[in-house]
Every structure is written in structure tokens, then in C-alpha cells.
Amino acid sequence: MRVKRIVLSPQNQAFSAATNLHCVNFPKKHQVCKSDNSFNNNLTNNSNKMQKAFISFLECASNLGGLGRKLIRVAILIIFVWIGGLKFANYEANGIIPFVANSPLMSFFLKDANNKVTNDEGKTVKEYTLNKVPEGQYNQAKHDWHVENRTYLFSHGLGILIMTIGILVFLGLFSPYLGIIGEILCIIMTLGTLSFLITTPETWVHASPEALAAGEWANGFPFLSGAGRLVIKDTAILAGAVVLLSESAGKILARLKK
Fold first, then answer.
1. How many domains does the chain fold into?
2. What does pTM read for this prediction?
3. What is the rounded average pLDDT for all residues in the chain?
4. Contacts for 4-12 with beta carbons within 8 Å, 24 or more apart?
5. Most buried by CB count within 10 Å: which residue of 55, 81, 114, 140?
6. From its record, what is one biological process in GO terms (predicted)?
């Protein structure tokens, strides 16, 4: 059988070049055309490069555990020292009273936490509700009530405790024994803070009768108020403290086994 030699016209040659086709001569055989695989090869090479880059990223990220734990210690130091220091400011002390007055674990620190009085609407309420002072404002009569109630004395003591916990957790970078003390205290404190979601009415939105009548449905659980949104963030601190507790305990065990 005689095979004709394929000759491409100039137009077909241009089409062949545009479509990545070219003719290949096989010895003593007829001439055939096949697809150029360079495009597919480039795709494969690019895919391999991306895979290698992704694996390199994962290997790098997998080694960040130690850095992450150090950053948690620094973060707790900043948060606790800052917030603890603010407890010496009257506005911050006034702001924590709803939490403390309603907590069965802390209300005994305050003199008049559970006193009941009648408000202007004729309702019986806790006395602290009539002595709230908005941030940035001052009321002499309410200030005197907080002094008598031991509000500022309690707040100052709490501030010292919070700052001490933050410093102990940070010192866990150098001493696991100091660290584990701070981490245990941090866990206890955050659990106490989270308990406010159960004991403090102000942590939830309370829609007025007018709002409910108008169709407002954000009322009670799970609608956190500003105070509640502040409290719920302690879940992240609690989780971080547990991680650090595990680290400190591991270091102490390693020393004891030597």
C-alpha cells in the first residue's frame, strides 16, 4: 500500500501552529500529526510547584505551636495588666457592680449589694440599680454611696489580683512553677467571670413592653447585651489558659522525672 506524503498548505501550517499541532517524520513511515503536550506539561509543573509551596507553608505553620503559646502569655499579660489597672478608675469600678452584686460568690464583699429599695416606678429593686453612674459622668451622692458600699475598695483589690495573675502567667515563660500558679488562677477567674452570664440580668437584652408590642423579638437568651458580649469573650482566655496549664505541667513533669 502506497502512502501519500502529507503536505500542508500555508494556511494549514498557520492553523497547525495556532493549535499547537506539528508533523513528525518517522523513519520509513508516513508522516503523521500529533498534539503538542507542552501546555499540559506546564500545567502539571505549575500544579507541582503550588503543591510544594503549600506543603512548605504547612510545615512552617506546624512549627508555630511554641510561638503561639508564647503569644498567648503575652496577650494575657497585656489584657490582665491593662484591665486590672483600670480597676483603680472610678468609672470602671462603678461598671463592675452589677456583676458583683448579683454573684453569690462575690456579693458579700459589698456592704449594700442585696439591699432592696423602691424605685420611682414603685418597683422593688436592688439598691445598686439606683446608683449607676454612666461612664464619663460624676454624681456626688452616688459616689458617696459607692464609697460606703465598698465598691472602690473591692475594685482596687480585684485590680491587684488581676494584674498579679497576668504577670504570673507571663512569667511562665521562665518558670513553669510560677506559670502554673497563674494559669490555675486564670482558669478560676475566667470561670467566675463566665458565671455572670447566669447570675447577672444585665448581660442579656431586655426588650421593653413597647418594643415587644412593636414586634421586637430580641429579648433574653441568646441575645447578649454589651455587658454579655464582653463576658463571653472570656471563653477564649479560658481556652488559652488551659493550653498554657498543659505546657507548664509538662515542663514540671519533665523536671521531676530527671
1. 1
2. 0.78
3. 87
4. 4/30, 5/30, 5/31, 6/30, 6/31, 6/32, 6/33
5. 81
6. response to hypochlorite
